[in-house]
Amino acid sequence: MKKVIAIILGGGQGTRLYPLTKKRAKPAVPVAGKYRLIDIPVSNCINSGIEKIYVLTQFNSTSLNRHVTQTYRPSSYSDGFVEILAAQQTPESPEWFQGTADAVRQYMWLFESWNVEEYLILSGDQLYRMDYRQFIGRHRDTNADVTLAVLPVDQKRASSFGLLKIDTQGRILQFSEKPKGDALDAMRVDTTSLGLSPEEALRSPFIASMGIYVFRKQTLIDLLSQNPTFKDFGKEILPRSLSQCNAQAYLFNDYWEDIGTIESFYHANLDLTRHPNPPFSIYDVNAPIYTRSRDLPPSKLHDCQVKDSMIGEGCILDRSVIHNSVVGIRMRVDHGCVVEDTLLMGCDFYQPDTEREADLAMGKVPLGIGENTVIRRAIIDKNARIGKNVQIINKDRIQDANVEERGFCICNGIIVILKGATIPDNTVI
Questions:
Q1: CB-hemisphere CA count at 13 Å for 274?
Q2: pTM score, whole prediction
Q3: Which CATH number, 2.30.30.110, 2.160.10.10, 1.25.40.10, 2.30.130.10, labels domain 300-423?
């Protein structure tokens, strides 16, 4: 793996994940109570022996840059690194990143300078665990110019991905980016060729690209230089490469979630609370997920009822009910609260007791969840202040609403309290 450079794409606006991306890049969105999405591909790289890692950033990148800088500090005797490459304007490239391929092209002068054999292109907003050594091994064994990680999907999800057809040897014959209608039906294949049972193949008759690629060094250089107007890998570069290159598919038939929408993000987090076998485990000692070390105290739970939930470090929970929920770091939940099917992202800091008491004395809302509050099917972003006797329950069963002036949105029926928002006492949402 010394001959591989990993390039993680983290520059997109993340509009479908709004409002969680209102003030942060998508790869910086907190996940599982203590991590950030960027920790997933970086940890996969480290666990796979890949030590040279670049992260390309653009929109709302401040918190992402800070997290990467504070978290990943390779030892002085290693040539490994995790380095941020921000979008910049130069005389040769006066525009910001215009797409995934354009982002890589603008920094190709740097990537070319390394004495490596392959470039591993990754997404910064997916939840999965992969040993990239097997992926790159398949690429080398087939003498491929480019290899795509793929997985079987059902018809409901298929139109959200790039779809492909392969021959019996795994060579890619056709690629179509997010097809609809008849074009989607044309990409249906018999996925028993991937090793699926007839029943599984019936449920998942499409082969989807995961947005994870490994390129031979010279192949990527040639594809980007020969097609200077092509901005995107899925829409332009990959379809063009099929006629020029040996393009291969690598089957990944394990848990993988593209965190593209509020709904997928919400379910991916709550799925982690399943017992005893969640679809994705953060407890694999052979492939840990790394993140920033915060040296927080253990969480304190006083006379609480907690079921099928995860509690982050440094929390204080007082006489409350927590069911099927994820509670992020430094979260404070006062007595009499009920939290069900909810993701509490936690807080970036502790509010001093004197300040908290002063807020309460003046009728203000302190940091955390106030007493006798009920929260169901919601995402509470960081540093939110939820008052006493509040009900966040979507009482009118609204599917979508943007009420940012009141501190929340509703997406697919899921209430999202904005980062740093204040919800006054006795509010009903």
A1: 11
A2: 0.92
A3: 2.160.10.10
